Amino acid sequence: MGDFERTFGAGANIESIIDGINRDYFREQRKGARSHSGSARGGEPKLHQSGKQHFTSFQEAMAWAKRNPGKSITRSPDGEGFVEK
After folding, report:
1. What's the rounded Cα separation, in Å, for the pair 8 and 42?
2. Segment holding 59, helix H or strand E
3. Rounded to whole angstroms, how far apart are CA atoms 12 and 8?
């Protein structure tokens, strides 16, 4: 059994796997474009439903953490972006 079969399972279709990865990549790109349209870049981030700061990208989250010593960030529980810890 090769690495590919170990990772994706026996009989996996490489074309469908690549299509899925591309689909996820482009979906993520569209989400990022929508979240930045109409808002000034570098402004204050939105609040997450938990009441904490929400960031759409790691770069935004890191910039915020550097401006706020003692604060930290973590992945958002819903899997989309990052939140203040």
Report:
1. 39
2. helix 58-67
3. 6
